[in-house]
Amino acid sequence: xxxxxxxxxxxxxxxxxxxxxxxxxxxxxxxxxxxxxxxxxxxxxxxxxxxxxxxxxxxxxxxxxxxxxxxxxxxxxxxxxxxxxxxxxxxxxxxxxxxxxxxxxxxxxxxxxxxxxxxxxxxxxxxxxxxxxxxxxxxxxxxxxxxxxxxxxxxxxxxxxxxxxxxxxxxxxxxxxxxxxxxxxxxxxxxxxxxxxxxxxxxxxxxxxxxxxxxxxxxxxxxxxxxxxxxxxxxxxxxxxxxxxxxxxxxxxxxxxxxxxxxxxxxxx
Length: 269
Ligand code: 8IG
Prior knowledge:
The chain has eight helices and nine strands. It has 269 residues and is α/β, with parallel strands linked by helices. 8-iodo-guanine binds next to strand 5, strand 8 and strand 9.
């Protein structure tokens, strides 16, 4: 049976077993996906005890995006817990299907993680946002027309982004903004009209990843916190064209501050 034929939960369980064997870490307590600008946090939150190439774990694929690394990293936190950093995000726009997109989240849950930290780089729609600013995800609007759930799986998404965990983040950084994340399918950025639309329907930032992952994490019973780094103002809000290089640069500049925020946050999750 190939990975794509296997049911998603048993594939995630198989991945978690290989991860435990290869990392020597039996159980991970919390998991993080680090998007553009958030990568430095992996070094800040604790001591790396194992790095497993994602391509050697069932169901994972090497990343196709420059600036994204393809590893599963186990980190010992100062209090003795273990965090799993999923550095192998598969995006919806890669066309591998939603099962591949949420395999990391499902593997984290199968590895024991009860808390999922989802981070991303996003375009700012809210005119008050500035590039380099982190924003807590309060809620999302999923414009991909896709769900990671299959069959009659009626999962409740009230409080998808845990109010408890958002409160914990604001205790660490009281000025942290909260906004609604709108996921577009990508990989093209939006037109200015689409960005205006995203704002009218209640969005504050636009991206290409987190909503679908959050839904799968909730199905798996995890408590979720989401954070966006505003790397650019969305199309039509900023006057210059959007470029991936600009996104990487804004991420690099904000990295030390974001790493410190996540370090303090992970300690209280
Ligand atoms: I970083 O402006 C980043 N990701 N859809 N739009 C969308 N995704 C993004 C953007 C953006 N910036």
